[in-house]
Design brief:
With about 180 residues, the chain is of the alpha/beta class. The chain is about 60% helix and about 15% strand. The chain is globular, with a radius of gyration of 16 Å.
Length: about 180
């Protein structure tokens, strides 16, 4: 079974890739969803939970929980491609490569002004409606090492034009990985 990762800064288009992949039979394991699920259990914000998890269990706890979830899917006999959404650090990439043969990273890029407008429309709990908050979140993500992950990706798709063109690029990539 192929396991691959998707990376990119908030609003770049990772969820569009995930949606297209699911339509073709992939299973998505979102690192952000793992944090949001834990936040709900704890009655905390996602941001607070992400910090607390790392403080309590180490810097790479979210990756460890994600790997555990994927291995459970494998044990259940799942043969679908599994896509990990939201990889943010080179160390996380190494952890996935250590646990899954032929692990690859697809990164999605869009410039900050485009991503900020997308986030304002998306209005998820952790999406800032002001540019200063957006910039702070980007700085946090970059501090985790996401820039290195993006620069060392096996494939990079630029998502700065229309949705149809982006979906064509995604479909082409998914064909390349036999999905």
């Amino acid at each position: 079974m192929q396991v691959m990762g998707i990376s990119g800064l908030p609003g770049s288009g990772k969820s569009v890739v995930s949606d297209r992949a699911v339509e073709k039979g992939a299973i998505i394991v979102s690192m952000g969803d793992i944090v949001r699920e834990e936040a709900k259990k704890r009655g905390e914000s996602s941001k607070e939970t992400a910090k607390n998890l790392r403080k309590e269990h180490g810097q790479y706890i979210v990756s460890e929980l994600t790997i555990k979830k994927i291995k459970k899917l494998q044990e259940e006999g799942n043969e679908n491609i599994i896509i990990v959404e939201g990889i943010r650090s080179p160390q996380e990439v190494d952890m996935f490569k250590d646990n899954f043969d032929n692990f690859i990273i697809l990164s999605i890029f869009a410039n900050p002004s485009i991503r900020f407008e997308r986030l304002k429309k998306r209005m998820r709990e952790d999406d800032s409606q002001d540019y200063a908050g957006f910039k702070k979140r980007d700085d946090t993500e970059l501090g985790f090492g996401i820039g290195t992950v993006i620069s060392l990706s096996d494939k990079l798709i630029i998502n700065e034009s229309d949705l149809e063109s982006f979906e064509e690029e995604i479909d082409k990539f998914l064909e390349e990985v036999n999905l």
